[in-house]
Amino acid sequence: MQLPVKISYRGLENSDQIDNLILDYAARLEKFCDHINRCDVAIEQTNHTHQKGNPYRCRIDVTVSRGHELVADERRMDNGSHQALNKVIHDAFKTMERELCRVVDKQRRDVKTHADSRSPK
Question: Is the pTM of this model over 0.85?
Answer without folding.
Answer: no
